[in-house]
Backbone:
């Protein structure tokens, strides 16, 4: 039954290899828990068995350490999918896992860095004024100036950026495109890159419409863009791990700190639901509490 279900996930659902491996491991452990309870088949499973499995995941046992909420949630989702599949295929009379809810992982606040760190990072990217330095500065200015995902930034074509209107066409997830404004700092950096750097870079390759190019004249990859950001952060002395998403988070957080409406930020980020964007408001509330605690004369007693 487990093999049939995993084949279904691989062939019909197209799950990634890593996800299938995790599901296989979770379901193997589930089978061990059922066997230890004397359950011989899926048609004998009751809701209490599934609940017991969830408890074992969270509490651990002699053979397995306790799982985090997110890992336990994945395991329970695998089990729920197995029972739903078996019931739908007519292999079991009921779905005993239907009412067992996976644990809710704690909400992770997006990581943002202060504006002063962003400015130091951007300045560090352009040190030297070489063609690659001009490219690096333009890339990072676009990431922070538009809130673009790294895939959206490296996927830009030269014609996607309109300097006259100060906008850029971003090609988002699921083929959804959006037009976003571009700040004057980013526009100047891109213009300098287009005039002084890109012609020399594109001459080294076979010709491409992509905006950001590598040293060989080809399209810049996501991995290379990540390395550019990491190197700039190290030169600028920005503490902690800085990723392309850090600039996206900082873009959203700084907008909200400046008074932007959350639904406007939702559109700028290309979020399908405002609920996703509202996570950033938690960051700004923490900032408000910090300022209040240090500035209000009767905040602390």
Residues:
């Amino acid at each position: 039954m487990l093999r049939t279900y995993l084949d279904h996930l691989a062939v019909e659902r197209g799950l990634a290899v890593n996800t299938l491996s995790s599901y296989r491991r979770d379901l193997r452990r589930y089978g061990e828990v059922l066997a230890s309870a004397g359950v011989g088949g899926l048609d004998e499973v009751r809701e209490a068995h599934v609940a017991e499995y969830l408890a074992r995941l969270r509490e651990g046992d002699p053979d397995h350490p306790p799982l985090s909420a997110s890992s336990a949630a994945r395991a329970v989702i695998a089990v729920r999918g197995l029972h739903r599949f078996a019931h739908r295929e007519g292999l079991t009379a009921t779905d005993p896992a239907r009412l067992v809810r996976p644990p809710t992982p704690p909400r992770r606040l997006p990581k943002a860095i202060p504006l002063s760190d962003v400015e130091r990072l951007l300045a560090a990217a352009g040190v030297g004024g070489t063609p690659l330095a001009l490219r690096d500065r333009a890339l990072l200015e676009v990431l922070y100036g538009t809130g673009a995902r790294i895939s959206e930034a490296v996927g830009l074509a030269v014609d996607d950026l309109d300097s006259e209107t100060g906008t850029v066409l971003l090609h988002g997830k699921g083929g959804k495109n959006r037009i976003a404004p571009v700040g004057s700092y980013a526009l100047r950096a891109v213009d300098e890159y287009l005039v002084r750097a890109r012609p020399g870079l594109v001459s080294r390759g076979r010709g491409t419409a992509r905006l950001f190019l590598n040293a060989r004249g080809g399209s810049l990859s996501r991995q290379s863009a990540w390395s550019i950001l990491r190197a700039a952060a190290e030169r600028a002395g920005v503490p902690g791990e800085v990723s392309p998403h850090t600039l996206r988070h900082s873009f959203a957080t700084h907008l909200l700190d400046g008074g932007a409406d959350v639904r406007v930020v939702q559109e700028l980020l290309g979020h399908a639901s405002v609920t996703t964007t509202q996570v950033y408001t938690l960051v700004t509330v923490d900032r408000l509490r910090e300022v209040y605690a240090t500035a209000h004369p009767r905040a602390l007693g």
Remarks:
- The two ends are 63 Å apart (CA to CA).
